[in-house]
Structures are given as structure tokens and as C-alpha cells.
Amino acid sequence: MTLEHDLNKLAEQEQRLQFERFGPADAWSLGCALRSLAESRGQAVTIEIRLARELVFFHAMPGTAPSNADWARRKRNTCELLGRSSYRVGRELEQGGGTLESKMGLATRDYASHGGAFPITVRGMGVVGTVTVSGLPQRDDHALIVEVLAPLAGVPLSEVALSD
């Protein structure tokens, strides 16, 4: 698919994958669902969920490395700062021909525009947290999150999934 198609679909995901409420119990359910799905596919990922910038769920599956947690931190920082998925940020930068460092002065040591961090949004409140996955290719990290968020948000995955 084209970059323009991806950007439109990524914006749609952020608009539609929202919740009426989202608290620590929801974060736990989301984290466990991500872990279960990755495990069923034989994938090793690190999962981090934060609410109000506080860590509420973290799991590093066997087969991950400390670098996965660091990638998660960097992608999460981008998502928290900009309120958009880190994959969308990266695709926007690709379209505009820049980097987080060149456009915003953000150090690559602390920010990454690679897919895998997604904003947790509550309708009427805005972004209340982030969910981050690291360990797969960036599009797959992002897709794993969307695959689990969609049913939790009551949205058919077929309507919001990125095309291959």
C-alpha cells in the first residue's frame, strides 16, 4: 500500500480505537492479551503499558533482550510527547523527509519514530496512556497492538487493520 494510504489508516486507527474508560484493570487485560497473542504465534516481545506516565504493566517474554525494553522506552517517549502512534510519526516523517532530530531537535537516544507505541485514548479526556510493543519488525509491532485493541474498543479489526 502507499504511504498516503497508510497515513490515512493510521489516523483512522487513532480516531476509532478509543475507550469510554481505561484504568489499571483494563491495562492488565490488554497486556495479558498482547502476551497471549504473541506467545500463540511464537513471537517474543516486550510489552509496556503506562497510564498517566506511570508504568502499570511490563512483561519481557523469553527471547527478548534488554534492547527491546530500551526501544519500547524510546517509542513510548515519542507517543507520549506527540499523542500519536510512533508508527504514524515515522510514516509522517518519511513523507516529509526528516527525522525527529532534524524536525524537533529530539535525540535519537531518547526518541524513536519506529512502529510499536500507540496512544490509549479515552473519549472526552484525550490520551491517558500508551501501549508499546518491541521485538518484531516495526509494522508488525504496531499491527499486534491494533489487533488486540480493536476488539477491546468494539471495532472490527478488518475495518482498521493496515494492508500488507
The total count of strands amounts to 5
What is the helix/strand order? HEHEEHHHEEHH
By DSSP (H or I, 4+ residues per run), the number of helices equals 7
CATH topology: Beta-Lactamase
Q: Helix/strand/pairing class, anyone?
A: alpha+beta
Helix percent reads 40-55%
Provide the β-strand percentage band: 15-25%
Q: Please name the CATH architecture.
A: 2-Layer Sandwich
Shape: globular
Terminus-to-terminus distance: 7 Å
- Tell me the name of the CATH homologous superfamily: Haem-degrading domain
Instruction: Show unreliable segments.
Output: none
What is the CA-based Rg, rounded? 15 Å
Class, according to the CATH hierarchy? Alpha Beta
Would you write up a description of this structure?
- With 164 residues, the protein is α+β, with helices and mostly antiparallel strands.
- The chain has one domain (3-154): 2-Layer Sandwich (Beta-Lactamase), CATH 3.30.450.150.
- It is built from seven helices and five strands; from the N terminus they run H-E-H-E-E-H-H-H-E-E-H-H.
- A five-stranded mixed beta sheet has the order 1-4-5-2-3.
- A hairpin with a 3-residue loop joins strand 4 (117-122) and strand 5 (126-134).
- The longest helix is centred in the first third of the chain and has 17 residues, at 24-40.
- It is globular, with a radius of gyration of 15 Å.
